[in-house]
């Protein structure tokens, strides 16, 4: 076994220093070391997208990254999405209103995939939305209401996007 | 009642927690001093175990314990038979249930042989590599037909055969029907294996508290109460000493109703043995080997019809691959046998099946639970008959539907709930006409011709199905007015995304006239509610929903009686609305439900004899038999004969699940079901080689449909209320995936008439369709 | 899985044959081989470290039994391997044909069965990996042959 490595990350705005095994996956680090269990693990081989988080603002699969690779980076997980205890992010609100989730296990991954997607393309077509989420698997919804939720969120978030 | 909630698309109460990452799933459970478990699983499909050497694993730093079958002592015993065979005359059933850890023999790849308990999952997996197992490989039984060959290796040698069951059911005289028929069509149909692939893998965590003498188990099960009862029995504890929680569960789809999985038996035992909390979480690869699967069947079926397309009879012989064990009894093949009859009048029916053991993962219900096989066979037979008669596929269905005067209709065979296959109600023809109209069936041929001239191949498929739902035995619910004025509801079901927290709240909110958000529902916690069976067979909303309704009614009566006493008015004068009771015409004489609840639980004084404290009631609902949902699916596809790629252009569902509690949730269930049906029809197939090795045990090779593969589903509801329950509900959980394969096959054939294709198998990958097209071309 | 192929060595047949029987040479040539020793006449035990596509490299303990030896022309072999990722079993034949005094053509054929995790996730890539490993091994062997002849 290799000796532990020092790791320093910012997650949802808070700094964390830990000493971890080099082989520890980032998804396990977030879930078990930092107790941020909103990031889910569905396949551990990078296909299902449930473990998607933001690293320096871009969507990455935390099951395909070692925790030590996140050293010095800024991470956002689903727990960091809503502004406050009561407020939901407009994307979260849209998912609720459009019934874009059922069991909710894949949902954090969809949300974190969609944050940079909508930032880069604030007015996506349905086709673009479907392409944007085609790397995330959902077994419950048939995707239809997720597409609807993204459309709804895009409409609502648009005014903020334009100066 | 002033406000109506039942029938409204109310946003879900559970969503906030799920959307913010605050919902608790089993793998999120973290306990002080918790140890982690990994299982050593068989690499062989069929082999004798000559010996297991765990010494090196035990010596590894960080390993707390390693257990094999030998270490379990008396705790090692075959699991319970979950569903006994139904009372069908002349039935054969050979019972072989799974064991916690394989002792002398393994029966499928992935069967657990040993488990390691360690300080982390990483170390536990390291230690698996230290364990040496001496196998003596045996010949494997993979193909269900080969299982019954005289020289086939035998799995469970005590039976001397791989036959797990033999069941014959039917009514009328098929031979006579055949003799009178103008047309008889017989074909062989294949339906291959798939996996449920809930996004959350299974997990079990357990803690034994020696001071409280209490075992707490978190389990991704669809049936927490039977898990509690079984664990109590196995571990020699009182049911009250075992607390099972199925918190948020990330999709069930059937396999999570299976019990007892070896891991469910072992993790609590380890927690008690070591006096430390332990957790095991399945990884995705394990899920392909350790979680049950479904679907392998081979049907030799025949239909006898008249010149004008009326069904005289159907005969079906089929083989059902039950895998290594038959712990779930015969639910799946019985469903196939019964659901084949569909919404049709079938004057004579002979159905005979043999379930066989194979060296593959055990088969238990997966969404649809055998129903889609029956629907596929029947709908395909009708299509082939229509083609032979030169009749429109929609027309042959129209001519054979049971009329509305037929209900309740008795098919005179036994269904999975052990009672006769009764259809409680239905209204089939309007559903078909709505579907045809929505998809533009009449103008489609013209469109098809136009497209064809442009070199494009489009086709339409329209199929019908019924689904027996909402079966017994019973569920219960307790409704309580909390002193805060909020309403608490507890039921024994587990929930896996069906929106029970909201649907049950709507049922109760309507009866008590409070806001839906004020109703707090708990499911899947045996401490909260200790009686019930589980979430299966599209029964949750029907059976537990009806129990919630009954309990809420009883609470309502208590509220009115108590308010009458307190407000000094006759009950008839009391108005219940908006979370308050008022005397009609005297609005100042009013109390909130919270105040009334506090008064119903006084600290001093006397409670009136014959009354109970609090505003609370428990009720149970047990339907005599299920309620029959039905529907029509229609789809338009475009096929590229060069590449064999199929694009679904439109998908229409007309669904009748009786009265809707929450149309938004119902539509979501159907859309999700359709997506699984599409996966089943065109993408998902578990591939085993001749030695029983599973060759595609990952999401890279076992393809789930993505957002690019699933079309938008256009939906219309029809509501034929079920007479079996007070709300008129029918189940909907499985409906979406049941007829998809049949509709897909019909549409693909229709797109390529010149090939004269006969699609007689599911799933149909692009590769397989390509070779079918080549074969058709060669002829 | 079936592996078929041929390879041409620029060396006399006897030299190639000799090398193929020498575990010290083979352990250097076979990709991932960490240990190979003769444990009996025509029996070898070894350790190899091999990964396939997404499957993490794992140590395989391998046992090879040579049979039907016809020096310097041909032999058959039976192979068994075990690792945390599963097991492999197979049979193979190797034939050496002297093209001329300084050139030897090798024909090889193997039937390999895989079980366990490796079968479930590696199958799609195994053909390619097996071919690649065979080619790398033979090329390394050829370099060894040429080095020897140059001495």
**H/E element order of chain A:** EEHEEEHHHH
The CATH architecture category of the largest domain in chain A equals Roll
Secondary-structure-based class of chain A equals alpha+beta
The overall number of domains of chain B is 3
Overall number of strands of chain B: 30
- Oligomeric organization of the protein chains: heterotrimer
How many strand segments of chain A? 5
The parts of chain B where pLDDT drops under 50 for at least 5 residues are none
Computed structural class of chain B: alpha+beta
Number of alpha- plus pi-helical segments of chain A: 5
- Shape call of chain A: globular
Task: Kindly identify the CATH topology of the largest domain in chain A.
Answer: Ubiquitin-like (UB roll)
Tally of alpha and pi helices of chain B? 19
**For this structure, what is the CATH homologous superfamily of the largest domain in chain B?**
Aldehyde oxidase/xanthine dehydrogenase, molybdopterin binding domain
The poorly predicted ranges of chain A are none
Q: What count of domains describes the coordinates of chain A?
A: 2
N-to-C terminal Cα separation of chain A, in Å?
Answer: 54 Å
Report what the structure shows.
The complex is a heterotrimer of chains A (163), B (779) and C (151). Chain A is an alpha+beta fold and 163 residues long. Chain A has helices spanning 26-33, 90-97, 107-120, 126-132, 144-161; strands at residues 5-11, 14-20, 52-55, 58-61, 74-76. In chain A, strands 2-1-5-3-4 form a 5-stranded mixed beta sheet, with helices on one face. Chain B is of the alpha+beta class and 779 residues long. Chain B has 3 domains: 15-21 and 472-621, Aldehyde oxidase/xanthine dehydrogenase, molybdopterin binding domain (Aldehyde Oxidoreductase, domain 4, 2-Layer Sandwich), CATH 3.30.365; 31-138 and 196-290, Aldehyde Oxidoreductase, domain 3 (Alpha-Beta Complex); 297-471 and 624-778, Aldehyde Oxidoreductase, domain 4 (2-Layer Sandwich), CATH 3.30.365.10. Chain B starts with 14 loop residues before the first helix and ends with a helix. Chain C has a 7-stranded antiparallel beta sheet with strand order 1-7-6-5-4-3-2. The mean pLDDT of chain C is 89. At the A-B interface, helix 2, helix 3, helix 4 and helix 5 of A face helix 1 and helix 17 of B.
